[in-house]
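Suppose you are handed a protein chain with no further information: no name, no annotation, nothing but its sequence. What can you learn? This example shows the usual starting point.
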Amino acid sequence: MMLLKQGLIMRKVYERFEKQFEKVSEFVIHLFINSVVFALVLVLVSAWMVMVILGNESTIDKIGNCFIAVSFLTFFMVQRVLNKYNLALQVKLNELVRAHENASNELINVEKKSHKEIDDLAHELHSTGAADSRENGKGSIPPAMVKRLLE
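A reasonable first move is to predict its three-dimensional structure. Written in structure tokens, the prediction is:
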């Protein structure tokens, strides 16, 4: 009985940690794709590169430091492009869900759910979709089930 209580407590702690981690992750992602932050990082890295180039380091160290600076700036640009691509993909998928008569509109903007909720939903939809396709040749999920899963 005590082990069961400890297990439940650990599960609650883990779930709380996961929710906080998702909030922090979302904040960091929005921070990294911000144009103002990129401009600030560009200024800081440029100043650092000037100090490196004017410093007394060897040429190889200077080149290495410049590569590090360029890689750091590239990270911000790649993050922004990937976020834009992901957002465009979500908009397209939402439109397809809206347009398909058998699809449930409850799935629109499902990406705003927590990671665990999306995992649970994906698992449930996968197993239900496989069972439906075996039974009647269709892969559609009943809207009532989707609504229950998203609550």
